[in-house]
């Protein structure tokens, strides 16, 4: 063990409350034998997750249920899935699939073999200029639509969880969303599917010979499917019932109209797979028929005195042609104040208030005007209210305004769930009634909730008669569970008997509605569903009890308790929206999983073997491999910052001696900075292999989280002296970040340094900058903040703010910072750690990122030459600051083609974390790097030196550098003296007389 390895005891919860759903002691060692050994032999160690940490992190999803798998398989191919199926058939095991884990009814949870079909299953191929798209099941809806948007197309399904949910899950649940209704969902827009049946047979429905191949492989299945089709078609009453049920949104049970719509076994199976929730097979690939992306939108958020009044207005907007009509009640609106951009005065809205979010989408300006005129006629006949000043009750074309409305609506589950009482479990219900009866249904629902003591939140896709509501109760309290059970009985009877509605409109049956399937469908239709399951999965290996369950109390089994954890994470409802943005998603754990593991520690007795095992793994899996970039906070609708929690955990693991050393480093940072620059300069003269071996040995002896690893992409040292500037006449103070005072530019760069480029740009634009002579020894404090060193962090935070106050003449000049993470640190992250007096000084400072500053100079600069193409890496700090568009503006001034990879995200280099855990950066950047290296670019641009080093490492030395270096080159006046000679020997076709530098 390394000398300074931290003890897990520092993170052991001080108090725990053993819960009934805690992991049993027998699983402390993880997957039991022979299951573990069998699967390791069958699939290999890279595809089997078997520690107790693995089992716990996969046991929770966005639903109110919690079932512990016995083992997790990370499948890479359809052959892996078929092998697991074969093993399950031979050994009487059960298999459940999990992709994003955003489903709300427990569909992605199993008690035996759980198969992860997200990690290795992403990718999209755009076909026919966007008319169709071949999409792998682990691709998020947002990622698929990003690729289609370039062709003016999009997918029909548009669930609110599109940022995280995967296409495979959308199809398996027939999830629809705000605009899909009954005509744009997966069932209607899927062109073909490739799936693996429980027998292992792979079916591609697009093949011309698909039916012939299936008949040879599965003759009994084909015969029985056609026989069931004939039986249903021979029953006119049942046929009429099926057709009537699907005039509404309905995902309860199997899609019985597939037996009416499909002519052959393959066509029938294609339809049955939609909404089958992983109970009939594994969807390995989809081909969608896409829809036009109508870019001309007009949106309004209209406020009504009551839920019933809002619901009554829905048919008018439907008749006017609205694409979306979304309903939000007072509880939802008030809870949405936690969502960034939502007006704070919504918190004061009367409880009875409700709102409709109405949006018209058109292909062109003329159609948009016609829609707006129709909307105006509807508005003239409505009685709207404006209970708080921010309410406008008007249509807008402003995408920023409408985007804020949609963020509030899409955050329904998470924002309301985040405001629930601590320790309570969240249930999300989803039902549909005929749209004409929506107002009656709202009234009846509110009465039912009041009768059972629930103060639920209500929202939904009102245009389609589809409502959602949330209930919170304590799953550890039997009386509260009984109250929930009584409510569910009454709610299901109300929906079916009074409104003839759908008990699940778009969230799929799941564990909480499976017991009520026959109540809605009746015995004949339900019997047909059981027949389907027996025909396709005769051994019953797939997802038992997920869609079909004869236990009338099945929905009360496996409800998860929610132990109270640290305050920053306690509101988490485990929705998973944070996961796609997390750099460690494919390496160790995600923000949701970090919280899930913490909650399990609190379910356990303090000294249990399970807790010991979880704590032993948590240091590396959760704390050390968290990049601390806090992009999870941006993705989380209630702003949970798991990165901040991990930094706090790092602090807890520090010994007093470590804190003192960190403080001393901050106090004498001028010496440290000079030493670091000298060390980098010396290292530049040594062999990379020797440096790698030396740092590797030191890491093994001391601690990997303290000693950086040498990477060949680490550049040489920065110049010893910064450019000479004058304070007189300066329009801004330029603060070169410490990373740019220590590290120089990448290999092959022969032009000006970044500080020289910034000074030159200011001079050319007539906006000169001044570099203070005493910047050495100062820092934005992120070095200490990111590692949880509180004393050093406070010391440096106070020092830099005091210095910046003096440099800027008390905030009269802006402070321009040339590294985006340092801009974020100085602008925001230092504030909580300052003394009260320095906090008041900080409030007067204007901190500007150098990219934003440079974008503001563009009207004053003359472009003399441009590059052909540039690829950008927007940093995570730029996401926090909202500066990504400014980076693109600067790049577009320098290059004729500018590309931001669809998979661009945090590089996880995080200052020096990529040197401490290179595997983190390699995992985080894998998809982005694959896009970048798939074609040549003339320049690889970013806005943070350490991120550029990380991307250089990820792309095998493509030469990432600051976009300001390219802007300096593009605006450099021609000179006969040859000042514009190329920075490398490669001529990349500039637009001026001078060849462009490689990677400028």
Give the helices and strands, then pairings.
Layout: H1 35-43, E1 48-49, H2 52-57, E2 71-74, H3 78-91, E3 95-98, E4 113-116, E5 124-127, E6 132-135, H4 141-149, E7 153-154, H5 167-173, H6 186-189, E8 190-196, E9 202-204, H7 210-217, H8 219-233, H9 236-245, H10 258-261, H11 265-273, E10 282-289, E11 291-292, E12 296-304, H12 307-320, E13 324-329, H13 330-335, E14 354-362, H14 365-380, H15 399-410, H16 412-418, E15 425-432, H17 438-451, E16 457-461, E17 466-473, H18 478-498, H19 510-513, H20 517-536, H21 591-603, H22 609-624, H23 631-635, H24 642-653, H25 656-667, H26 669-683, H27 688-701, E18 732-735, H28 738-742, H29 754-764, E19 769-770, H30 782-787, H31 790-807, E20 815-817, H32 820-829, H33 836-843, E21 847-849, H34 850-857, E22 867-872, H35 876-881, H36 884-894, E23 895-899, H37 913-916, H38 918-924, H39 926-933, E24 939-942, H40 945-954, E25 961-962, H41 963-971
Parallel strand pairs: 2-4, 3-4, 18-19, 18-20, 20-21, 22-23, 22-24, 24-25
Antiparallel strand pairs: 1-2, 5-6, 6-10, 7-11, 8-9, 8-10, 12-14, 13-14, 13-16, 15-17, 16-17
Helix pairs in contact: 7-8, 8-20, 12-17, 17-18, 21-22, 25-31, 29-41, 31-33, 34-36, 36-41
